[in-house]
Amino acid sequence: MTRKERFDFVIGYFQTFKPEAETELDFENTYQLLVAVILSAQCTDKRVNMHTPALFHKYPNIDKLYDAQYDDLFDLIKSISFPGNKTRHLMGMAKKVKENFGGEIPMTVEELVQLPGVGRKTANVITSVVDNQPNMAVDTHVFRVSARLGLTLNAKNPLQTELQLIKYVPKELVPKFHHWLILHGRYTCIARKPKCAQCPLKPACKFYSKLTKKDKEALGIIPE
Question: What is the total count of domains within the chain?
């Protein structure tokens, strides 16, 4: 199977069986999504969603977050991974948005990455989810799944993965495509023991095609 055929198969499957795909973070506006994505770094969406309601109640917008005190904000997110760093990131983000962008969250990748706690992945998430821009967010799931499937070749980092993927994914599908791979990686193509036995993408998967009989037995795959 050629690389293009792999992309066609994967896209065709998701368009047919998973036409709707979106972030699992709970949010109601751009501000809430930005805060949630910053908090989600190296943390599960489920845990983030447990804590953001109280945070958004106390700090419903950039102006309120701008006035936040470190200890008060830290207390609301202390059970999320790296709470100290993330508290500083949120406070720094609010300060930058307020003082450099007139209180409005910018909507370009180049501007968003200027905010504390916002890297290229986060900026791609914000612009694609909020504004439907064709920006490919690459997290650990997208990096792993695209490599296993054979959609990317020898990509050494998220940026290389991003640049390879957008060459083959139709522009209008880019905002949705990274959600497809994220969810597939989160629930099926998991890191340590992928659920190949129940994966519908096996016919196009380079990783699966190289599995030995012993490998398949270890993954619980019944020989056909």
Answer: 2
The verdict on 141 and 127 lying in the same domain is no
Domain endpoint, select from 76, 104, 131:
131
Q: Which string of DSSP letters, residue by residue, matches the chain?
A: --HHHHHHHHHHHHHHH-------S--SSHHHHHHHHHHTTTS-HHHHHHHHHHHHHH--SHHHHHT--HHHHHHHHTTSSSHHHHHHHHHHHHHHHHHHSTT----SHHHHTTSTT--HHHHHHHHHHHH--------HHHHHHHHHHTSSSS--SHHHHHHHHHHHS-GGGHHHHHHHHHHHHHHTS-SSS--GGG-TTGGG-HHHHT--HHHHHHTTPPP-
Per-residue pLDDT tens digits for 55-77: 999 999 999 999 999 999 999 99
pTM of the model: 0.92
What sign does the dihedral 21-41-167-151 (CA atoms) show?
Answer: negative
Q: For the domain that residue 153 is a member of, what is the CATH number?
A: 1.10.1670.10
Indicate whether 158 and 72 sit together in one domain.
no
Residues 101, 160 within the same domain: no
Active site residues: 121, 139
Q: Are residues 89 and 156 in the same domain?
A: no
Q: Are residues 40 and 112 in the same domain?
A: yes
Q: Give the residue numbers of the binding site.
A: 189, 196, 199, 205
